[in-house]
Amino acid sequence: MPVEPLSQKEIEDRLAELPGWSLDGDRITRSYRLGSHVAATAMVVHIAQVQEELGHHSDLTLGYDTVALSVHTHSAGGTVTEKDLELARRVEDLAPGHGAH
What's the DSSP call for residue 25? Predict the structure, then answer.
């Protein structure tokens, strides 16, 4: 089943529910600052597990104590789709300070 691109308004409305996430060109992005390199590395592993579950993968960048994500849907012409927003929501759920472990 093909995934349809979302309209600019749909993306903006959904991003309003995901603090820290923003639209950057044809992708949604978010950076997290964690307490240490080990915490940032652990978050990358958790994100990788979520991405495998969803079958949808972002570009991930690991810094000393930061993790940055950038994602769009290649199969929808490199646009933002529901798949990207679901991934963002799942990452928010596991991010430190959001009730996840």
Answer: T
- Record the tokens describing residue 18, joined without a space: 């995901």
Q: Residue 63 to residues 9, 15, 81, 91, 96: CA-CA distances in angstroms?
A: 32, 24, 27, 17, 16
What value does the mean pLDDT of the chain take? 94
- Tell me the C-alpha distance between 80 and 89, whole Å: 14
- 99 vs 13, 27, 51, 86, CA distance in Å? 23, 26, 19, 17
pLDDT at 96: 83
For the beta carbon of residue 88, count every other beta carbon within 10 angstroms: 23
78: number of CA atoms within 13 Å, CB side?
4
pLDDT at position 41 over 50: yes
Instruction: Determine the distance from the C-alpha atom of residue 41 to the mean position of all C-alpha atoms in its chain, rounded to a whole number.
Output: 16
pTM for this structure?
0.93
Q: Model confidence over 73-90: pLDDT tens digits?
A: 999 999 999 999 999 999
